[in-house]
Amino acid sequence: MEEQEKWEEFLRWASEIGVSDSASHSSSSSCLGRTLVVAHFPNQGGRGLGAAREIAKGELVLRVPREALMTTESLLLRDEKLRIALGRRPRLSSTQELTICLLVGVGKGKDSWWYPYLLQLPRTYDTLASFKQFESQALQVDDAIWASEKAISKVRADWKDVVLIMQEIGLKPQLRSFKAWLWASATISTRTLHVPWDNAGCLCPIGDLFNYAAPEESCTDNEDLSEASISSSQMLNSERHDEKFQRLTDGGYEEDVNAYCFYARKRYKKGEQVLLSYGTYTNLELLEHYGFLLDLNPNDKAYVPIDSRVLSSTSFSRESIYIQHDGRPSFALSSVLRLGCAPQNSWKAIGHLVYTGAQLSVDNEVSAMKWLAKTCLQVLRKMPTTIENDKLLLRFIGEMQTFMPPVCCFKGQTCEREINDFFQADGVCDGIRDISLPMKAKRILERWRLAVQWRFMYKKMLADCIVYCDELISGLSISNVSGNNGKC
Ligand SMILES: C[S@@+](CC[C@H](N)C(=O)[O-])C[C@H]1O[C@@H](n2cnc3c(N)ncnc32)[C@H](O)[C@@H]1O
């Protein structure tokens, strides 16, 4: 079957089971077309859902009935043998169960009820768990390397746990392999949506085509519902779901209608991509769970080492002490630094002031900012490459992704060693012919690009923090001098 045919078959199947982008009932052969269309958005997730018309903020844009959702429960309902096998293993995690169920579903081929949906799933993913040693090392920052190594060993341990069960239930050897497990776990990690009855969540046909945008803090007034040109029934829906604007995600399972419902988080023009917030994630978390990064992520964070004595003398959690995406210290980081730069014997007495976020004194503020700038600089200096090196390397990787320049092109470049390491990495040179890279090498190249982009953005946050601190210090010094002048 041609790709187009498979796709139309999928939309027909979804329409027949009640998936719809329209509030009014329709017997159309496609579940989309009235509010949403599938389109390609090269810089924002590739395949995604675009607005088929102007969409008002708060409007219901898609409804996926419970029957269409692929969950462990719905899969087990259709497979008694599997239900009995899993029933005998109560120690499996809900995600392990769903992963096995998904592989069993894939193994059924055309006999699976979800076959048209399964055919549309991506073949590969770039989540941290799929990183090999070369890509993990390319992250350069210990915490990030550790996160990727942890993700890799977790997915392997989960697989080892269930190999016997998969054999027992007669899963074909290629579906029992680690490669298949990695694929199924990444499918679940990147595509499941929350449901109240299962921690593993659900796979939601059509609903999982929404690409991600980070949640915004507040919605602008000029996008108010009253201005939107929506019908009264849509308005009713909008009013009913007013509270959803306050939430971090804009879709959810609704018991009263037995369906997963998705709402527009803002007004969309025709043709614009309709995006969904899966939650608040740093770039490392996005990479870990979804295999991509945002160039501009308002929730990104960089952690710097802090003296444990200062840390333990406040009640701020370690997670709250970070540099923000724009280089500014978080409230907790500023507070902790102010305390750390004050004499230790005064910590108890000034603790309450620190929690209010107030500056203690100009000198204290300058010391805190100096300490932060110095720490960022030390961290940057310890990195194997600079921001400029990474920028250049990203350019080279981009070029290598479109055409393969001869290796001698990189001779003498600062990133020559890392490029050589790429060619030494497992699988890159297998089957390499003149200028075209084999598929496996292209996958490694993409994951390497993500790793370099991640470390580049991490370093950029530290560099921006230095600029922020320097500006603050000079501002404070000027006002201090003029203040002193005034006194004199
Ligand atoms: C739920 S799926 C969204 C649909 C997906 N693009 C598809 O073709 O099926 C989530 C995946 O889409 C991609 N994605 C989503 N939002 C993205 C974004 N803003 N930028 C880049 N990739 C994104 C990532 O690969 C992610 O794992």
From TrEMBL:
InterPro entries: Rubisco_LSMT_subst-bd (IPR015353), Rubisco_LSMT_subst-bd_sf (IPR036464), SET_dom (IPR001214), SET_dom_sf (IPR046341), SETD3_SETD6_MTase (IPR050600). Transmembrane segments: none annotated. It comes from Acorus calamus. This is Protein SET DOMAIN GROUP 40. GO terms for molecular function: protein-lysine N-methyltransferase activity. Residues 28-279 form the SET domain. PROSITE patterns: SET (PS50280). Pfam families: Rubis-subs-bind, SET.
